[in-house]
């Protein structure tokens, strides 16, 4: 702390720690916002889209500088090594197959930048990162519901007709909403009830607005799971090794894909024929592409999936989005990339065993199970939100320890004040 004597004989206090914290907070907003910015208007206004893309480039450069300056201070985990291998292989595979990174720059370069930024910030100041991310999501969800609601902007946003909300395509609502609820739960753990309540409510409202099966599934699982955690004393179903949930959801995923490939576009689910809102059509066509390049795939954004409704959309050539993470990895890099992705997930959830709080461990398991189930019907790696979630999972024991230390200091301080 410095005391600076001014011309008017007043002393100005300069607190270096406070200044450093504010600077870190500004950096967090500067980097995170272009990754989670509301993409709804980018479908209509090129200037709006280019503005955030340019901002994203600057954010990635800032992360690069931050990483270089902290390269010796970072406590490296196994999860860091495997995710580097994952992106490095994607880079090499895409370049060798395509000789280009067109439409894949964000996926190959921006995503790892976001991941390592989250890791660095969480390790330095976990609460600052969690609070800043919560503030961004609260503003985003607030604007999505109260300002840019489809009721007022039906020409731009309509989940039924246009499959679009202010936050972006309706398919991102389940991912962002789940992360919002998870962040809210962490804030509750630190006794920041007011901010946590706002974020959780807005996250659920956002998922309801999307009117997607994935979002309704997330809400249902969260309600059932949270009730189970609150009522049950042993929480046995949510105290299993998280690897079990990964194996279970992967098994369900494989069964769905086998049925789609063997039986056809429609198969019976709970006694009724279903296509999961057209997803089985996408999966069937995508699996045909996978069978042609099973080992190395097509490189990131290397092939488009053709479906019968492509001619009805603005992109008549098809789409990159497979609506299934397993298929997405096979298309982007074949069996090798899929294996690396499985290792990425594995080496991020193994750290959950070090979480001491039973309820926090159970809710983390529940959130991971839901997110891994989302990967059956969506492709989270095509967006960047999953890397925020993975970074938090890997550092959850450290987050818990920092929050516990804060709470102990807080209660000790209040106890002393009470008896002074």
UniProtKB/TrEMBL annotation:
Keyword terms: Ligase, Membrane, Transmembrane, Transmembrane helix
One Gene Ontology MF term: ligase activity
Any one GO cellular component localisation term in the record: membrane
UniProt keyword annotation of Transmembrane present: yes
Residues spanning the membrane: 21-38, 50-69, 81-101, 113-130, 137-153, 165-188, 200-231, 243-265, 286-310, 330-351, 360-377, 383-408
UniProt keyword Transmembrane, yes or no: yes
Subcellular location(s) per record: Membrane
Record membrane topology: Multi-pass membrane protein
Residue ranges constituting the O-antigen ligase-related domain according to the UniProt record: 200-342
Superkingdom as given in the UniProt entry: Bacteria
Protein's name in the database: O-antigen ligase
Organism: Succinivibrio dextrinosolvens DSM 3072
């Amino acid at each position: 702390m410095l005391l600076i004597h001014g011309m008017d004989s007043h002393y100005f206090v300069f607190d270096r720690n406070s200044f450093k914290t504010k600077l870190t907070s500004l950096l967090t907003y500067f980097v995170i916002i272009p990754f989670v910015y509301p993409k709804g208007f980018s479908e209509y206004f090129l200037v709006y889209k280019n503005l955030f893309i340019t901002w994203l480039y600057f954010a990635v450069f800032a992360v690069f500088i931050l990483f270089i300056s902290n390269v010796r201070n970072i406590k490296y985990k196994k999860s860091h090594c495997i995710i580097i291998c994952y992106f490095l292989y994607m880079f090499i595979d895409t370049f060798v197959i395509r000789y280009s990174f067109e439409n894949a720059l964000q996926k190959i370069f921006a995503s790892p930048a976001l991941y390592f930024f989250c890791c660095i910030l969480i390790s330095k100041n976990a609460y600052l990162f969690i609070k800043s991310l919560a503030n961004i999501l609260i503003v985003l969800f607030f604007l999505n519901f109260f300002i840019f609601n489809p009721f007022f902007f039906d020409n731009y946003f309509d989940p039924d007709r246009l499959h679009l909300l202010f936050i972006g395509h309706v398919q991102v609502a389940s991912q962002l909403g789940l992360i919002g609820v998870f962040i809210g739960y962490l804030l509750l753990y630190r006794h920041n009830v007011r901010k946590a309540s706002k974020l959780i409510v807005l996250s659920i409202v956002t998922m309801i607005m999307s009117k997607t099966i994935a979002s309704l599934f997330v809400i249902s699982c969260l309600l059932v799971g949270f009730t189970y955690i609150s009522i049950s004393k042993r929480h046995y179903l949510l105290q299993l090794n998280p690897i079990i949930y990964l194996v279970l959801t992967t098994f369900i995923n494989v069964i769905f894909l086998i049925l789609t490939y063997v039986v056809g576009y429609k198969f019976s689910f709970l006694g009724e024929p279903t296509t999961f809102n057209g997803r089985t059509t996408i999966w069937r066509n995508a699996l045909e592409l996978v069978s042609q390049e099973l080992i190395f795939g097509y490189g990131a954004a290397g092939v488009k999936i053709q479906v019968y409704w492509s001619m009805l959309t603005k992109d008549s050539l098809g789409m990159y989005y497979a609506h299934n993470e397993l298929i997405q990895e096979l298309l982007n890099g074949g069996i090798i990339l899929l294996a690396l992705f499985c290792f990425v997930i594995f080496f991020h959830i193994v750290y959950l065993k070090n979480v001491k709080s039973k309820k926090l461990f159970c809710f983390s398991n529940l959130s991971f199970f839901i997110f891994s189930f989302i990967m059956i019907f969506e492709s989270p790696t095509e967006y960047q939100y999953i890397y925020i979630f993975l970074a938090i999972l890997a550092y959850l024991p450290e987050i818990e320890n920092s929050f516990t230390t804060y709470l102990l200091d807080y209660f000790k301080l209040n106890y002393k004040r009470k008896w002074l």
